[in-house]
Amino acid sequence: MPSTYEVGKKLVDLCRQGKHMEAITTLYANNIVAIEAMAGPNMPARVEGIDAIKKKAEWWERSHEIHGGNVDGPWPHGDRFIVRFTYDVTAKEGPMAGKRMNLDEAALYTVKDGKIVQEEFFYHMG
Amino acid sequence: MPSTYEVGKKLVDLCRQGKHMEAITTLYANNIVAIEAMAGPNMPARVEGIDAIKKKAEWWERSHEIHGGNVDGPWPHGDRFIVRFTYDVTAKEGPMAGKRMNLDEAALYTVKDGKIVQEEFFYHMG
In chain A, what residues touch B108 (CB-CB under 8 Å)? Predict the structure, then answer.
C-alpha cells in the first residue's frame, strides 16, 4: 500500500500536469468528502462521494480559463498531507465572469488504506 | 476577539520579523499542544504547555544558524489556518552539526477563543 507521502507525491505530479480528473479517478476513495472554506454561489461547502467530486472538478475546469499555476508539496504528517496551489485564472461564468484572478490556497488531505478520503481547502477571500 | 485569519496574519507577520518568541507569548494559549511529524533525537513528537513550547523554541534558535527564510500564508478554514515555512539553516549541534539545510514545512494551527491551542508540523524527511 502506498504511504501518505507517496499518495501526496502522485497527486502533486498529476496536478502539475493538469491531470486533475486522473488524480480523482486513481487516488480518491469512493466515499471522498471535500470541504471548502466557504460555500460558493452554486456550490455547497461540503461535497460527498466520487461522482459529486468529479462533477465539481468538471464544473471548475469548464468555468475557468487557466493561464498558469504552481503546485507545491506534499508535506506529510501521519495519515494527512498538505499541498499548496496557486492559479492564475479568468472566470468564464458566474458573478466573476471575465475577471482575471490569482487563486492561492492550501489543501489538507486525509489518506486511508492508500486512498484520499477527505480534502479540505484553506483560503482567505480578500 | 480576533478572527482565525487575524491570528494567522499576526503569526505570519511576527515570524517574518524573526519574532518567534513574541508570537508564542502573545498568540499561544497556556495549554498549547505542538505535534511534530516525527520525534527528534532529543525531542518528543508531542510537546504540551506554554513553558515546554518556549523551551523548544529557545532550543531551536540556539541550535540553528538562520541564513534566510520565507513565511507564506495564512490560509484559513473555520477555526484552523495553514502557514508554510522555508528556512535556510546550519545546525549548530546534534547529529547534523555543521550541515547547511533547506527546511521546507507546512504548519496547521487550531484557534480557540482567539488563541492558538494546537500547532502541527507537516514535512518529509528525504
Answer: 77, 82, 108
Contact residues, chain A, for B70 at CB < 8 Å:
none
pTM of this structure: 0.95
Q: Taking CB atoms and an 8 Å limit, are B75 and A104 in contact across chains?
A: yes
**What would the grid cell of residue A24 be?**
480523482
Q: What is the CA radius of gyration of chain B?
A: 14
Cβ atoms of residues B109 and B80 within 8 Å:
yes
**How many other C-beta atoms lie within 10 A of the C-beta of residue B10?**
17
Residue B99 in grid coordinates: 550541515
> From CA A76, how far away is CA A7, in angstroms rounded?
10
Q: B46, B82, B105: which to substitute to probe chain A, counting the most A Cβ within 10 Å? A: B82
Residue of B nearest to A81 (CA): B122
User: Whats the size of chain A, residue-wise?
Assistant: 126
Contact A106 B121 (CB under 8 A): no
pLDDT tens by residue, chain B, 126 residues? 999 999 999 999 999 999 999 999 999 999 999 999 998 777 889 999 999 999 999 999 999 999 999 999 999 999 999 999 999 999 998 888 999 999 999 999 999 999 999 999 999 987
Partners of A106 on chain B (C-beta within 8 Å) are 73, 75, 82, 84, 106
What was the ipTM of the complex prediction? Answer: 0.94
